[in-house]
Write a structure and sequence with these properties.
By secondary structure, the protein is an alpha/beta fold. It has six helices and seven strands, in the order ααβαβαββαβαββ.
Length: 180
């Protein structure tokens, strides 16, 4: 499985997303449906150009924090550019080293992995890092993107540290398995 897009592939993806947003902007509506509250700590893992990051930053307000995490320099540059343009200052950009986010233990209320899981080659390392940074009552919200929900569910179940709680909104929602 490929983990890293080239800059050209990233730019093509970014153009496609910009086109989608121009035709029908749904990111704000989706972000608002996740129950994000003022003051929360949210992680946007695989933030890409920051479409969801910006919405999450608005929702957590000045008392909250959003970590925008990506493996690509270009993704973090584009996210930073978007945030500056919107005047959002409650986002911390983090470049992933292997699967190490550099985020402290037990801080995330919600972790999002939207349309990026198909790039993850080491499911175990990825999910254990998410587990480490998540609070005991945290949610993990997935969009399979280029993988079917069945494939995503199977990959996550194989690691055994997350419990599926919801799969009816086009997103899969998990809670930490505290028995691990």
């Amino acid at each position: 499985m490929k983990e890293k897009l080239s800059n050209t592939e990233f730019r093509m993806m970014q153009c496609f997303m910009a086109f989608l947003d121009h035709v029908h902007y749904y990111v704000g509506t989706k972000a608002a449906s996740f129950g994000i509250q003022n003051g929360m700590t949210v992680v946007d893992y695989g933030c890409g150009p920051g479409r969801y990051t910006a919405e999450f930053a608005r929702l957590v307000g000045s008392e909250g924090i959003v970590y925008a995490v990506d493996i690509l320099d270009i993704a973090l540059w584009e996210t930073e550019k978007r945030l500056r343009k919107l005047g959002l200052q409650n986002v911390i950009l983090k470049q992933v080293n292997e699967y190490d986010t550099g985020i402290p233990d037990n801080v995330a209320d919600i972790v999002f992995a939207i349309d990026m899981f198909h790039h993850v080659s080491d499911t175990d390392a990825f999910l254990r890092e998410i587990y480490r940074i998540s609070k005991p009552d945290a949610l993990l919200i997935f969009s399979g993107g280029h993988q079917s929900p069945a494939v995503v569910k199977t990959r996550i179940a194989s690691v055994g540290c997350w419990l599926l709680t919801d799969d009816n909104r086009g997103f899969l929602t998990y809670r930490k398995d505290l028995s691990v």
